[in-house]
Amino acid sequence: MYKYSQFDSDFIRQRNAQFRAQIERRLNGSLTEDEFKPLRLMNGLYLQLHAYMLRVAIPYGSLNGGQMRQLAMIADRWDKGYGHFTTRQNIQFNWPKLPDVADILDALGDVDMHAIQTSGNTIRNVTADHFAGAAADELEDPRPYAELIRQWSTDHPEFQFLPRKFKIALSGSPRDRAVTRAHDIGLRMVKKQGLVGFEVIIGGGLGRTPMIGKVIREFITPADLLPYLEAIVSVWNLLGRRDNKYKARIKITVHEHGIDKIRALVEERFALLRGSFQGNDQRLLEQIRTGFAPPTFKTGPVKAFEQRYGLDRVFRDWVNTNTHPHRNHAYAIVSISLKTPGKTPGDASAEQMRVMAEIAEHYGHDELRVSHEQNLILPHVHKSDLETVHKMLQRAGLAAANIGLISDIIACPGMDYCALATARSIPIAQEIATHFDTLKAEHDIGVLKVKISGCINACGHHHIGHIGILGLDRAGVENYQITLGGDATETAAIGERAGPGFSADEIVPAIDRLVTAYLELRTDRSEAFLQTYRRVGLAPFKTALYPETTRIRQVNAA
Amino acid sequence: MVRPFIDKVVTANDLREGDVVYLTEVNNWSRHLAEAEVLQDEATAKARLAVGSSDVLNIIGAYLADVTPAETGPEPRHFREEFRRTGPSNYFHGKQESAENV
Q1: Which residues of B touch A82 (CB under 8 A)?
Q2: What is the pLDDT of residues A57-91, one digit of tens each?
Q3: Per the domain annotation, does B48 fall within a domain?
Q4: N or C: which end of chain A has fewer CB within 10 A?
Q5: Considering the entire predicted model, what is its pTM?
Q6: Mean pLDDT of A238-256
Q7: pLDDT number for residue A551
Q8: What's phi and psi for A382, nearest 5 deg?
Q9: Nearest to A282 by CA among A325, A223, A210, A368
């Protein structure tokens, strides 16, 4: 883990002191709300439907046990005893009171955390593969680069008033678990002639105009990474549409000017900037790397684990769905599901946070990760400890064996909290998860990613769900549109809209019909939903979704 | 054709707590929708919104929300306002925590 330097700590203290004074000036009337709003947003503080919301950065999703305990303390002391982990690997507190926020930020500063640039038109919290530093299929841990980007982008004087927000994601593996193709910049680690570098993708994004990113450069070396990123952001900073917030993101700039023109402008700017870092970024990168040295892995037999795996079906199911191959064969990566059917996707109580912290400290080399799929990860667990970890998770209500299955749903907060939402997301996720859990069908259904957003801003990633659900307001009634065939991985795709939307009462039966159709259409259990969809296309799923319309059409045609 | 005016209330969020509040006839902010002043014409609504918005030391983001009169007081016309006066549906938090607020 990266440890704050004295400079970092001083910077955070100073920022927090500034914001404390700004809050006081707002409360005593010296600042108007129009003056205060950009200041609070710079510090992650939103106003939602029922209360303020504080969004805390968890850089590239990495945190340790002590930090998790502090989040639990904050949840208990200043909020309502829980936190919500988001698709941007952050945590949100839904009920802070304005006069308490400065104390909360100081408490975060005590454990090297902050809420800076989690909002506003800046470079937001950098996200990365949640299995970084642990995955068997990884070329190299991308987090030192992510930390370098975080330091470069934090309070960057040129990039504090960008045309719009800007999001960067990194992946160190050919398997893209960081959704690099749906970010303003996606960095996909690749090897060329034995050297590690990055493929640079720009102009991806979801929201009202979903787009898959385009490759602007096939290979950039680590030495050129920051000047090249700075070139991209500064070209967009000048060209980006400040006249229309819906056209301000870089995806629109790329779309309007074409990738070739943008590439030429970026190369021109890059040539100017390339020498300006003078190797300081590389010296910093070397310092940062020391903080990401792999843990001292335990050695020891895994025979007891193998026996238990053979004997205990519940444990076996959990190991099969919730662990992934670690680069050390005696270890596993554990995904802790925050998707217990019926519960709110991404939420953890303060007590659950403390249990996860304890497990990380005792059995996980003090490391935790937040995934963009709103689950928590223990990246390094020795297989001999898996049984104990599983038992502790069971006792805490955190042992749902559903990672990647239909109840492992991404859902934004929706209209239960969010001021931008047009419909609720959480109850729909709860109902779908509960429905398939009751049927005990989800292991048979297999990998199926359902993603739900409560408005077109698409925080719930619905465009890239195998089944995407978008909640809208249709004449004062919640209505849910379905998209099919989206994909968040290295084979990224935007889902196709299936047809007219469904009411809140109709949406679970509609999803049920889709799943039944898939089970009938698949060649066998090895063909996942997305593969079947790609083989047969939208038509048979549409027939399943709208049986009445299809019947009427057939009658008319006859 | 002139559309008939839909009754309104002035609503906002409390500056300190962020909680949903409604403007009353005596220029207080109440947590209870039932105590809100119901505005029955455009001019009054506009004037009362101006009064509400000017109270910058106590509230944020005042606006007019449509309501339907009922015996127990005004009722929200849109589901967003129903959630605002109740709280989220996934936890028993917000106004519903204190039953008398709903």
Answers
A1: 91
A2: 999 999 999 999 999 999 999 999 999 999 999 99
A3: yes
A4: C
A5: 0.96
A6: 96
A7: 63
A8: -65, 140
A9: A223
Position of tokens 């983001």? Answer: B61
Q: How many domains does chain B have?
A: 1
* pLDDT on residue A335: 98
Give the chain A residue nearest B77 (alpha carbons): A476
Q: How distant, in Å, are the alpha carbons of A239, A336, A378, B68 from that of B75?
A: 48, 42, 48, 5
B3 falls within a domain: no
Range of the domain at B49: 8-94
Please answer whether residues A57 and A125 qualify as being in contact, where contact means their C-beta atoms are separated by less than 8 angstroms: yes
**CB of A67 within 8 A of CB of A59?**
no
How far apart (Å, rounded) are the C-alpha atoms in residues A477 and A507?
13
Contacts of A49 in chain B (CB under 8 A): 20, 80, 83-84
Tell me whether residues B15 and A26 touch, CB distance under 8 A.
yes
In a 3-state reduction of DSSP, which class is residue A119? coil
Mean pLDDT for chain A overall: 97
Task: List the structure tokens of A452.
Answer: 């739900």
Q: What is the spatial order of strands in the sheet that B29-30 belongs to?
A: B29-30, B20-23, B8-14, B59-68, B75-76
Q: Show the tokens assigned to B62.
A: 């005042």
> Quick one: what percent of chain A has pLDDT higher than 70?
98
DSSP, res A487:
B
The number of angstroms, rounded, from the C-alpha of A330 to the middle of its chain's C-alpha atoms is: 28
Joined together, the tokens standing for residue B86 give: 């109740």
How many interchain CB pairs under 8 A, A with B?
Answer: 76
Sequence-ordered list of residues with C-beta below 8 angstroms from that of A417, at least 6 positions apart, any chain: A48, A49, A50, A53, A94, B88
Interface of A with B in 11-50 (CB under 8 A): 26-27, 29, 32-33, 47-50
Q: Which residues pair with A467 in a beta bridge?
A: A450, A484
Residue B83 has its nearest CB partner, among A49, A98, A473, at A49
Of B15, B16, B87, the CB nearest to A50: B87
Q: Is the pLDDT of residue A249 over 60?
A: yes
In sign, the C-alpha dihedral spanning A503, A504, A507, A509 is negative
B102 lies in a domain?
no
Within a domain: B101: no
